[in-house]
Specification:
The structure holds two protein chains of two kinds. By secondary structure, chain A is mainly alpha-helical. Chain A has 13 helices and two strands, in the order H-H-H-H-E-E-H-H-H-H-H-H-H-H-H. Chain A has a two-stranded antiparallel sheet. The longest helix of chain A is centred in the C-terminal third of the chain and has 38 residues, at 222-259. Chain A starts with a helix and ends with a helix. By secondary structure, chain B is mainly α. Chain B has a domain at 73-245: Orthogonal Bundle (MetI-like fold), CATH 1.10.3720. The chains are: A mainly alpha, B mainly alpha. Chains A and B meet through helix 1, helix 6, helix 7, helix 10 and helix 11 of A and helix 3, helix 4, helix 8, helix 9 and helix 10 of B.
Chain lengths: 312, 273
Amino acid sequence: MPGLLAGRLVQIGVVLTLLSALTWLAMGLMPGDPVDLALSADPRLTAEDAARLRALHGLDQPLWQRYLAWAGAVLRGEFGFSRLYAVPVTEVLWPALRSTLVLLGWSLLLSAGLGIGLGVLGAVRRGAGVLADGVALLAQSLPGFWLGILLIILFAVELGWLPAGGMAEGWGLAEGARFLALPVATLAFVNIAAYARHSLSAMREEMAQPYIRTARMKGLPERQVIWGHAFPNAAIPVVTVAALDAGSLVSGALVTETIFARPGMGKLIYDSIMGNDYNLALLALLLAALVTMLATLAADIVQRIIDPRLAA
Amino acid sequence: MIRLALGLLLLGMLGLGALAAPWVQAWLGTDPFAPDLMARYGPVSAAHPLGTDELGRDLLLRLLHGARVSLSVGLAVAVGATGLGTAIGLLAAWRGGWVDAVLMRVADGMLALPALPLLVVLAAVDTGRFGLLRGEAASDILRIVLILLIFGWVGTARLARAAALTQLSLDYVAAARVSGASEGRVLLRHVLPNIAGPIGVAAALAVAGAILAESTLSFLGLGIQPPAPSWGNMLSNAQEMVFSAPMQAVWPGLCILLAVAGCTLAADGLRRR
């Protein structure tokens, strides 16, 4: 286990370093720089002013030198400022991260719970398998943003029960839940597919094993046979899915937050890239990648805990 | 079998619709690219079977033209990703050693990342410097295909590598080598046909993934740029109108759903055969 942990942390470090360098390059290729934006905002700026501003912010340096300067500052813990919001980036990043983690947490809980429930039901009840298959196909094929729009049309426009987007103003739990309901439902439903499919096939496999027949022969109640004997074994591939799915969950959060105008990491990344806010965009992107990779690592550790064969 | 047939039927219908777009346009006699501001959000009528959009353009025709864009992006990405992924997977399995290690670490690293935020960054890159102008349908399609290929090869490569490793350890490969076949012949004539099954399944799923990714990027305003229609950018227009014209949002999404479900069903059917 310590070996796995050390190896994976090194891997995460390498990926983050490469990612930051490549993204820096990609952002250098985007149209316009902050001084161009300042120029278009203020007609009194002259060409000399522009050159002076570029020199002041180091924008006249080659791309790789700017990258090294930036990376050094980040390693010293100086994350710099957001140009778009005119505050230190950490002040925008933390609230966004918290909002996204709340969205991700509830969605993961809901999609794993419903998906696994559906898969298990499909494997033990004759006929329910078609239901599980159908829901999985639908969930896999639905574009997340379209589902979001449909939910807005139904619950916000037609019925008027829930807000179409935004965040709760106060701290009230019920109010927060009203704003969370549609985004969580959108993100969770799209992610049900993988859980339902894999728990369905894993449970079908386990239920056909001889040890299940033995357990039934001993006179155990069916509930005990399913949840006590078959499920722990079927859970192993399902946890693998959770690990592989961390990336698509974070990707889904970007779309969901954009549709529902929730100020989270996804919307932050989108807005900062659109607004030419290099520094914020890069840090937000790295943070999202870090969260994804840590989630994958956590799922791998859980997998080793529930499957002793892997721990050796 | 039912799955495969159903999937191919769905894809066939959408494909026929896409091919038939010019004839339907001639038959209806309306231009899906010419705005008609007097006929915004027009109701369903004989001239406009699904009504009109926010600029008074025929919705059905825009859907059919959008099908051309979305399906060609899906097919192009799937062909490219399958070719590239198979080549990389075969190379990794055949060469082994550090080549294998490097390629698979890269693949692992890319799988661990959230794809969409990175696609957003890539889609925002100024491609005008490389001669790909934004806003022209053909260069937009090429740009999206190239971006999706960057992530598209990974899944196929891992699958092809695993399948090829199994095949390379079998006796018939040794027999082919002993009888004097060159390495290229062993890989292309002996190994490749035997791993075609799983690769075909991956290719069908790649079409589905590419259609979803293209529509998501176009929805976010980073993919195919208007006035060229794509199912994704039709939805981004429609989102702003959910309060006044909710049906605008239904049709493009339904097309994406059917296309992706068609590919998934076909892939499922292929896998079970």
